[in-house]
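Anyone able to model this chain together with magnesium ion?
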Amino acid sequence: MAAAVEILSMIEREPGRSALYLDIDGTLLDIAPTPEAIVVPPELPNQLAELAAKLDGAVALVTGRSIARVDALLQPHLFPVAGLHGAEMRLPDGRFIEATVSADFLAVKEELHARAESLEGVVFEDKGAAIALHYRLAPYRKAEVDALMEEAAVSTGGGWILQQGKMVVELKPVQSGKGRALEEFMSIAPFRGRRPIAIGDDLTDEGMFAVATAAGGAAIRIGDDAAPTAASARLGSPTELRRLLASVACRPPGNGHG
Ligand SMILES: O=P(O)(O)OC[C@H]1O[C@H](O[C@H]2O[C@H](CO)[C@@H](O)[C@H](O)[C@H]2O)[C@H](O)[C@@H](O)[C@@H]1O
Ligand SMILES: [Mg+2]
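re: yes, here you go
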């Protein structure tokens, strides 16, 4: 397994041949008790913008969050984003691929919201065309949350599927997937023809790890868990990643670690 620092130093040496695909929660940002409690280090948005400039714009966020939430987190910058696990995208030229909702899904959402309110400690997150039920504040609720979400998925009539995550179960559009999102970005400028480097921390990121490595790139899984992964390297924490990315952002090309 390659070291994460070697992979990032490849970007430093050859920014014009690299493209970077970044997950947010657990990767760029430390995990917090609830979705709203995350802390964006004040220097991070500008560092990502510097990195993007260095890679001629070939930096995308690939996340379970909605694009609107990403924009709010990383303001004032608007990056290319695959949101809702790839169900919605903002392409580099500003075009949107939107996720649509059905009447069945809206009814399921309402019902889930009401039922989640009776489960103390469970946090309901409405993301538009996706829903997350979090049990981080009440881990003993996992079985109840799983059962509720399995029932909800069936009630959508097949248009939405389950996504397991860190202390969360999500309902995401069946037409989603971070691997598919990467393929979409990789087919267009400025991402086309560049070596894809995907960085994430969770099950949902495994699809993009597989696509990036199959295309001759590399992938880094963040975190100290021992979960099996298609990533080519591991790195301990978002703090370490932010430090390495900051160093890539500010060094001139060709001045890598060796
Ligand atoms: O694909 P990502 O960018 O990693 O987003 C995945 C989900 O992240 C968020 O939930 C997770 O982070 C929360 C804040 O640290 C944490 O409280 C929660 O337990 C985690 O599961 C987000 O709320 C979801 O919408 C994203 O899909
Ligand atoms: Mg993540």
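Helices lie at 4-13, 44-54, 67-73, 103-117, 142-155, 178-186, 206-214, 238-250.
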